[in-house]
Inverse folding.
């Protein structure tokens, strides 16, 4: 009997496994071994009901690789460098002089927009986490988990920016934090996006949830933040906000990269291209309609 080597499932690589290959390959027992869960539980039944192969048929999920081969150590190092950059930008706002030099109306609009944007961004974080929980492979689960962390970093940085605005001008909006929640829950211009995000959060089929998030809802919300708010900030002379959002947009570029890699794997499935195209068309139209009322008066988009 041939003695098996450590990480025998990677023997066919023909080279010493990389850290990424060791950490991600055969990470998830149920989909990797095609045996499901050893003990019947409601969670296992849910996974079987909404798992990745249900919509597309047989898919070679093992062919997916993160283009950047992201490991935990690599993720922490790259994000640490960007966090230091944003910290340096925000340090320029101490004392409030730079914010007080901005147009007061812009400050009010920026604060209200960032306050409300925290809620759809939290929705994207929750959707990314859900995808990771029903992912068909360890490589996909890891990418989803890191993306969820990126979404939460955005919420944190927006909240910090709101704090700068409040400290610079305490009379700006005494209820800035609560204002965002009220706008998200009640303001007419936010309700289409709220319905869209809440619909995404109850979309349980992995393939549909992935396409809806990565190909429709997230690109539209990213555009609001990285194009709408960033451009408005640049026009108003708020280079700190624009540069900070530019640093966060680098994360979104990676999100697009790994999503494209996974979509190329889905295209090789039995019902791949047709099913994905139908889902993309349906959700893209829905997401575009959801953000349309926000592009205009009363917001920084």
């Amino acid at each position: 009997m041939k003695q098996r080597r450590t990480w025998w499932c990677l023997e066919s690589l023909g080279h010493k496994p990389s850290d990424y290959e060791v950490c991600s390959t055969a990470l998830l027992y149920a989909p990797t071994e095609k045996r499901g869960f050893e003990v019947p539980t409601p969670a296992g039944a849910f996974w079987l009901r909404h798992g990745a192969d249900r919509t597309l048929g047989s898919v070679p999920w093992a062919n997916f690789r993160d283009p950047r081969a992201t490991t935990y150590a690599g993720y922490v190092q790259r994000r640490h460098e960007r966090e230091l950059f944003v910290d340096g930008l925000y340090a320029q706002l101490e004392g409030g002089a730079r914010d007080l030099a901005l147009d007061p109306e812009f400050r009010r609009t920026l604060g209200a927009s960032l306050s409300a944007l925290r809620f759809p961004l939290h929705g994207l974080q929750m959707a990314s986490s859900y995808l990771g929980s029903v992912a068909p492979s360890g490589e996909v689960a890891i990418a989803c988990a890191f993306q969820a962390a990126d979404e939460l970093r955005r919420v944190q940085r927006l909240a910090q920016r709101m704090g700068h605005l409040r400290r610079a001008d305490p009379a700006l909006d005494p209820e800035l934090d609560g204002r965002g929640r009220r706008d998200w829950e009640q303001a007419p211009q936010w309700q289409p996006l709220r319905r869209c995000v809440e619909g995404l959060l109850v979309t349980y089929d992995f393939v549909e949830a992935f396409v809806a998030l990565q190909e429709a809802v997230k690109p539209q919300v990213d555009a609001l933040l990285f194009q709408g708010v960033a451009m408005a900030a640049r026009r108003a002379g708020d280079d700190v906000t624009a540069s900070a959002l530019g640093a966060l947009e680098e994360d979104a570029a990676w999100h697009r990269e790994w999503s494209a890699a996974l979509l190329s794997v889905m295209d090789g499935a039995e019902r791949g291209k047709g099913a994905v195209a139908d889902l993309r068309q349906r959700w893209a139209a829905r997401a575009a309609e959801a953000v349309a009322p926000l592009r205009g008066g009363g917001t920084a988009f």
Observations:
- The chain has 13 helices and no strands.
- The chain has one domain: 76-294.
- Residues 233 and 241 are 6 Å apart (CA to CA).
- The domain at 76-294 is CATH 1.10.620.20 (Ribonucleotide Reductase, subunit A).
